[in-house]
Design brief:
The chain is an alpha/beta fold and about 450 residues long. The chain is about 35% helix and about 25% strand. It contains 12 helices and 24 strands. An 8-stranded mixed sheet has the order 7-6-5-2-1-8-20-19. Strands 12-11-10-16 form a 4-stranded parallel sheet. A hairpin with a 2-residue loop joins strand 22 and strand 23 (about 390-395). About 40% of the residues are buried.
């Protein structure tokens, strides 16, 4: 009996020793890992998060949304071609070391001296707290630039987030249903069903393309005789799709202008009101929905940073070619980086595209994983795609440029392969197939 007790005692003693060793080892490993804080969950930040070596870093993400959004297909959700959840990927699917390493919050201020970020919870507004970092990645993107045009914030809708697309879809369906009421005059019906799109970049053009498909394939079918009241006006002060090849631009203009009730206007908006927009020429356009998609502007966090920034409307953070932020005295910070739409490389201006942000994220993750193999960031465009509606698209890549139906096939194939997970690669083609066979879902809730 005594021998049995002695054996049990020895087993327990050795078990306690092993547990202590493991605990100490875990603490040593945690101390050895640096703390990397990532602000944002867009193309750049998400790219860093997916590719960073989590054995080297404790990764903490602070973002106002808990998902990654595949923005090239966002316009398709505004009319129901795709469903909202088909183009978003939960950030937590990247598997954090600890579940509290993701914060649904927004960064308020940055203290470079103490290496801390002050954050505010989005779920409890009075909850403020600090997060310390060894390395910080600022990738919070930008907001739409209103150019201080009166009424934009109050009466126009944007197209940057899923929440924006939901508002556009809800307003569009509400206007269509309201236009069916017997007390609505033909003039009021024409106003309700007139959509004004401000901005001729890829987002504005592709939203117009989705509207065109919606009118041709669903409004004609579900609201017979009402399609003649629907109008879409695309307003751009310069050329539409300015970053595309001139021949492709001309093709896009031709396609839009040939469509009945679709107008392309070269002007600028000076005032947005509840039921109309006013142009620089003095013309007034009655409308039921205004979608604003022009340029980028800095978020409040970026505005408040006391570091080097561009002296233009974008207010972007300036970085060196290694994506380190530039300080006001011209030096760089070796612990803070900025990527995506909120930043630009000094003397090497880059376009504000998902492609640039994603490549910057890949570069930064590689540099942090292999600090002994540092090379300057270089960007070479893989090309651009844009959907025009009616199974027609544009493809502008270095090796060739095509348009029409073959380009539409390439557009869909390319974006399908670029989706971040197999779940989305299954959901998106299923949505496309449902739309083709049964039409778009016009339920409003």
């Amino acid at each position: 009996m005594n021998t049995y007790k002695q054996v049990l005692y020895k087993i327990k003693f050795h078990s306690n020793i092993c547990n202590c060793v493991r605990l100490k080892s875990s603490k040593v490993e945690q101390k050895a890992r640096k703390q990397l804080v990532i602000l944002g969950s867009g193309w750049g930040s998400y790219s860093v998060l997916k590719n960073i070596d989590k054995n080297m870093y404790d990764v903490i993400v602070v973002s106002a949304r808990n998902h990654f959004l595949f923005t090239p297909l966002l316009a398709s959700t505004t009319v129901g071609t795709l469903e909202f959840r088909s183009i978003i990927e939960p950030v937590r699917e990247t598997h954090f070391r600890q579940s509290d390493h993701f914060h649904l919050a927004k960064a308020m201020t940055l203290n470079l001296d103490s290496k801390t970020v002050m954050c505010k919870s989005l779920l409890k507004s009075e909850l403020d707290y600090e997060i310390s970092f060894d390395k910080l990645v600022i990738g919070i993107g930008a907001i739409s630039n209103t150019f201080n045009v009166p009424g934009v914030e109050e009466y126009a809708l944007f197209l940057k987030e899923v929440s924006d697309a939901r508002l556009v879809r809800d307003k569009l369906l509400a206007n269509i249903e309201l236009a069916m009421h017997p007390s609505i005059s033909p003039e009021e019906k024409m106003r309700l069903l007139h959509v004004v799109v401000v901005g001729g970049g890829p987002t504005g053009v592709e939203f117009g393309a989705e509207l065109y498909d919606f009118v041709q394939e669903d409004i004609k079918r579900l609201y017979k005789g009402q399609e003649s009241y629907v109008q879409v006006t695309l307003i751009e002060s310069n050329k539409i799709l300015a970053s595309f090849d001139s021949r492709l631009q001309a093709y896009a203009e031709k396609q839009i202008k040939r469509r009945e009730k679709f107008h392309l206007m070269q002007s600028s908006v000076t005032d947005v009101q509840a039921e109309r927009v006013v142009l620089k020429t003095g013309d007034v356009i009655p409308c039921g929905l205004v979608v604003w998609s022009t340029g980028v502007s800095p978020r409040p966090f970026v505005k408040n940073l006391a570091i080097a920034k561009k002296n233009d409307r974008t207010g972007q953070i300036l970085t060196d070619r290694y994506l380190n932020i530039l300080l006001e005295d011209g030096t760089t910070s070796d612990s803070v980086y900025a990527i995506g739409d909120c930043a630009d490389v000094h003397d090497v201006p880059l376009p504000c595209t998902a492609q640039v942000a994603e490549r910057q994220g890949l570069y930064l993750a590689s540099m942090l994983n292999h600090p002994d193999q540092i090379k300057p960031f270089e960007f070479k465009s893989m090309g651009m795609l844009a959907y025009l509606g009616g199974y027609s698209a544009l493809t502008d890549i270095p090796k060739f440029k095509i348009q029409g139906f073959p380009s539409w096939l390439l557009w869909r194939s390319a974006y399908l392969t670029r989706l971040g997970s197999w779940r989305l690669r299954m959901q998106v083609p299923i949505d496309w197939l449902k739309t083709l066979l049964f039409g778009r879902d016009t339920s409003r809730f």
